[in-house]
Amino acid sequence: MSKTTIATKPIDGQKPGTSGLRQQTAVFMQPGYLENFVQSLFDAIDPAGKTLTLGGDGRYFNTEAIGTILRMAAANGVARVVVGQGGILSTPAASAVIRTRKTDGGIILSASHNPGGKDGDFGIKYNIPAGGPAPEAITSAIHERTTTISEYHILEEAAPDIAALGEATLGDMVVEVIDPVEIYADLMQSLFDFGAIRDLFASGFTMRFDAMHAVTGPYAKKILEGLLGAPEGTVMNATPLPDFGGGHPDPNPTYAKPLFDLMMSQDAPDFGAASDGDGDRNMIVGRGAYVTPSDSLAVLAANAHLAPGYADGLKGVARSMPTSRAADRVALKLGIGAHETPTGWKFFGTLLDAGLATICGEESAGTGSNHVREKDGLWAVLLWLNILAVRKQPVAEILAEHWAEFGRDYYSRHDYEGVDKPAAEALMADLRAALPELPGRKLAGLTVREADDFAYTDPVDGSRAAQQGIRIFFEEDARAVFRLSGTGTVGATLRLYVERFEPDPARHDLDAQKALAEVISAAGTLADIAGRTGRAGPDVIT
Ligand code: VG1
Ligand code: CO
Questions:
Q1: Which of 124, 206, 282, 492 satisfies CB 3.0 to 4.6 Å to 269 for a cystine?
Q2: Could you give the residue numbers annotated as active site?
């Protein structure tokens, strides 16, 4: 074996965002770009003698990157790498592998919901031994290292073939290729009543799952059509493609439009769901009934006890700050804790580890539980199916009953994508500066009660995160939140999250955009969104 040390220079901008380092694929493919980041990661975690999990969502450059990382891992003294067959692992499956195989963490290659391909995006992140995304202390140590790096280590030998299951060696390192679908399917069977869901399908219940040509295809095929007996064709766009078939693998009404339109049509099946590029997000749609991710989290929290894995009840519920308060209302009724964290799954890890929360969720279509340390798209779909199998009611009815019991939190997110970065940053800075003067201000028939910049202190490890989003609370039980995305690669994406509580069941059937019109207008005026961004309206509404 011959280990080579290659001289390199720091590359600007290798700073992990909300979920790892994301960049345009072309940037990642520049000589040394991936190598610099991986060596910085290794320097930060000291991987000698350790076992790591490795896999990605299969997007363009995945195979090549896996080869490079294997060769660098061997040169850095890693003892064993557990790789998903073909280099592919969904994000929740990677977390499951880290946990069940007890590896010393893992590396996940994904830009998640961002488009893939030569002209798309690529990404990399490190997950800790508990299975979750590395906390800020580790990601900043990695970033710090990228600013001083001067060399990286790599083996000259080519990486072994990872198409077939089994073990091979690379230098002194063992490369073990595993079938991640099996580990994941076993985990799902330990949580849900597969018999009841099988009976549901056997009774004629119909479903479409849109894998969006992304990583969940094989998982959904095996679980839904294989183990649960759903008819073939239940899973749409099931073949993972390196460019996701040219689509944007983000499961929302805009990017999963064909499924969404089907669910709103006369021919709608009983249940529709979709997942994203790396399999950690989910969209849930009933016949004629879109379930917002915030509502989905609340409904799942209220009904989780119907699934065997959660029959003993929940220890607590956690949501990201911009997510609606619907889940908090459920927690209050159940007498369990409700936690509010900054955006990004990494903030849920300590709460899950400490047993303070069992179910977590984000408004961005992420839901998950303590079974892994990532959000998990198929898990959410299976929990919904388990609930439907027990309650034997249409999704629309379950939602209506939920709102009747808890009230409805009308909710929407407006994204302004690819906005001029300095303009977006100035918008946020000016809002921040104006915070003290906002209370009492009247806009669009609403009155500002309170306004702040969300800061969080982790109740378990005491770590702090500041400037996590500007919150404007209105007297009328409404809220607007402003944030800049930390996952984009071009310009800035401004996210405006709006919500308003409606206790009256007679008013639970309104169109969300209409119910939120005043909050949207107030927020638009407050931040002068149109003037600052030069946009007449948002690019994506969820
Ligand atoms: C977005 C979402 C956030 C999510 C993150 C990663 O981050 O808002 O809730 O955790 O993506 O999801 P941001 O910073 O762009 O708002 V994924 O499926 O892209 O790993
Ligand atoms: Co994702």
A1: 206
A2: 112
CATH of the domain at 9: 3.40.120.10
Q: Does residue 472 share a domain with residue 391?
A: no
Q: 486 C-alpha to center of ligand 2: Å?
A: 13
**Closest residue (by CA) to atom 20 of ligand 1?**
112
ipTM surpassing 0.95, yes or no? yes
- CA–CA separation, 351 vs 46, rounded Å? 26
Phi first, then psi: give them for residue 346, nearest 5 degrees.
-60, -25
Nearest CA to ligand 1 atom 16: 485
Q: Nearest residue CA, atom 19 of ligand 1?
A: 112
Q: What is the pLDDT of residue 19?
A: 86
Residues of the chain with pLDDT under 70: 1
Domain span at residue 496 reads 408-541
Residues with Cβ within 8 Å of residue 186, at least 6 apart in sequence: none
| pTM to 2 decimal places | 0.94
Q: What is the dihedral of CA 354, 355, 361, 367, to 10 degrees?
A: 110
445 is written with which tokens? 């028939």
Same domain, 297 and 373: yes
Which residues' Cβ are closer than 6 Å to ligand 1?
18-19, 112-113, 276, 280-281, 320, 343-345, 362, 364, 366, 485-487, 495
Please tell me whether residues 431 and 465 are part of one structural domain: yes
